[in-house]
Amino acid sequence: MKFVCIIPSRYASTRLPGKPLADIAGKPMVQRVYEQAAKAAKLEQVVVAVDNPKVYDTVVSFGGHAVMTREDHANGTDRLAEAVAHFPDADVIVNVQGDEPLIAPDVIDALCAVFEEDPSLSMATVASPLAEEEYNEPSAVKVVMNQKDEAMYFSRSLIPYPRNAFDDTIRPYKHIGIYAYRRDFLLQYAAMEQTPAEKVESLEQLRVLENGYKIKVIKTNHTFIGIDTPEDLEHIRAYFVQKGE
Question: Which residues have a Cβ under 8 Å from the Cβ of 211 and sit 6 or more positions away?
Answer without folding.
Answer: 192, 195
